[in-house]
Amino acid sequence: MAKGGRLGRWYLAGIAGLALLLIGGLGMLALDRAMRVSALEETRAAATSQAAILAAGLESELNKFTLVPSVLAADPEVAALLAGERGQQAVLNRRLAALAQQTNAAAIYLMDARGTTLAASNWDRPDSFIGSNYGFRDYFAGALANGTRSEFALGTVSRRPGLYLAQRVGPAERPLGVVAVKVEFDSLEAKWRNAEDGVFVTDAGGIVLLASDPDWRFRAAPQAPGEAAPRDPARDAVRYGVAEPRPLALPGLGSGASPVRMIEKIQPIAPVGWELHLLADPAPRVSVALANGRLAGVIALALLALAGAGAWLWQRQREARAAAATAAQTATLREQLQQANRLATLGQITAGLGHEIRQPLAAMRVFAENGERLLAAARTEEAGENFARIAALAGRIGEITEEQLNFSRRSAEEPRLVTLAEVIDGSLLLLRDQIRQKELSLTLPAPEAAAGQVRARHVQLEQVLVNLLQNAVQACAPGGQIALAIAAEGPALHLSVTDTGPGVPPALRDTLFQPFVTGKPEGIGLGLAIARDIMRQLGGDLVHEDTPGGARFTMVMPAA
Q1: Which helix (H) or strand (E) element contains residue 496?
Q2: At what angle do helices 420-437 and 380-408 cross, to 10 degrees?
């Protein structure tokens, strides 16, 4: 039953452990999911904020250059040159060069109504625009027709991409020419490459104009169905250098082939109708968040484990304290029960002890009276013999009362070396009168055998032996026999009490040492139970065996 209970507890403990592991695993999955969602939201928020900042920077850059062609279109020197005053060309060239240097424009130039360049900021360079005709450009035709126009395209001379901002000079019905500013974004794109995962700008048709990765430029970005307008290959070839722009394959994976998809944020760019696309890789934030979350989860599990271990240790200590208190209470109750048993036993032999004391007292009276008469007759030597007999009898009475007191005292003594002869003599001193009254013959062990020693409490050993002797006396008929024997068997000493009584009834043999089991009408059945408990506390035992003519009880004790 106990083994099955232990197996059941181990089974329940295993089930509880598996349940805790499952709960811990589910908790870690939920924590991973929460940390992943939080990292993605954080990345989206950061990307939105960064995209707005980059778009504002680009708009500021564009607005700075938008005013330049408008101001130049109203300049009198520009109008004079277009009206045919060629003397203004050199002055205007230097002015445009200075203005380009101040504004960081790639080029500023002036074209007549046919598209021929008359003045330019790069007039003194081998790739000067002067004399080149740009009447085929969309920005030129658009500015003549509408007053202003912008176009992003490759330069026909430099083959460098840039934004062309054009402004008409003169009224629409009689235009004089067009002022154009070319803006290049090399430094801005370089900053994007160093600072972001991916940035590109598209025009209204979805063509990539600016990009942190130069390979993305002039590719067609994905557009929603219905938004893609038909393209003119010839026009695209002039503007972008490619007749059919290849599609832009946006990176779908984070760094290190992370399964986390890029987050794209789109910000409109005024006033040119562009869109800035910011690609943010959430993988680093997700990795850090997962690591932090798992670390927090492990710490939480460790704290829970420590708390559980602490609770378990506290419970074990509480159980240990309760067990110690129970053991102490049990020991106290056992000692009290043994004391009650001793007092009950002493009560049964008190009448015999009274007879043992009355006889010496009567003899002492007789010797005292005779001593008085002998002294009166001056027979001092004979009187001294009487007084010696009185002293011996007084010593006998002292031995009896001392043994009685020792037997009734609570056993507070520590274990010590006890000679078996001491235990036998003390027990017989208490029971000798009962043995004599029933005229029982008593056989004692040899003195050398009785000299054997054990480490125990003298009172407890005497209590056991008195119980066994008293049971033997009560079991024997008048004239019966009681034999005490001592034998050494290995590391143990055996002190046996054999009587010639009727023996233990068969019905009681299996339960003989259980409490409240007795074959005596007046008994309560605690003597043998307490006696065996005392012997087992000593590290020995109390055993019973039937003999052909009675019963034998043996005290088994470890030898000292």
Answers
A1: strand 492-499
A2: 110
Do strands 177-183 and 541-547 pair parallel, antiparallel, or not at all (unpaired)? unpaired
Answer for the pair 39, 288: CB distance below 8 angstroms, yes or no: yes
Phi first, then psi, for residue 525 (nearest 5°) are 80, 35
How many residues are recorded in the chain?
Answer: 560
N-terminal to C-terminal alpha carbon distance within the chain: 38
By DSSP bridging, strand 274-280 and strand 263-269 are antiparallel
| Whole-angstrom distance, CA of residue 343 vs CA of residue 435 | 20
Q: Is 182 helix (H, G, I), strand (E, B) or coil?
A: strand
CB 137 within 8 A of CB 126: no
Residue 328 identity (one-letter amino acid)? A
CA distance 529 to 544: 12
* Sequence-distant (≥ 6) Cβ neighbours of residue 359 within 8 angstroms: none
DSSP for 234-278 reads HHHHHHHS-SSPPBP----SBTTTBSSPPEEEEEEETTTTEEEEE
pLDDT tens for the 560 residues of the chain, in order:
455 556 666 777 778 778 877 887 787 788 888 888 888 888 888 888 888 888 888 888 888 888 899 999 999 999 999 988 888 899 999 999 999 999 999 999 999 999 999 999 999 999 899 999 999 999 999 999 999 999 999 988 888 999 999 999 999 999 999 999 999 998 888 888 876 678 999 988 889 999 888 888 988 887 766 556 677 888 888 888 888 888 888 766 444 444 567 888 888 987 778 999 988 888 888 888 888 878 887 888 788 888 878 888 888 888 888 888 777 776 666 666 666 665 556 555 665 556 556 666 766 777 787 778 878 887 888 778 778 778 766 766 766 666 556 665 555 568 889 999 999 998 888 788 888 888 999 999 999 999 999 998 888 888 899 989 988 998 999 999 999 999 999 899 999 999 999 988 888 888 888 877 676 666 566 778 888 988 998 899 999 998 888 899 999 999 88
Q: Is there a contact between 463 and 513 (Cβ–Cβ < 8 Å)?
A: no
Please give the model's pTM, rounded to 2 decimal places. 0.54
List, in order, residues 6 or more apart from 408 with CB less than 8 Å away: 342, 343, 346
Cβ atoms of residues 200 and 210 within 8 Å: yes
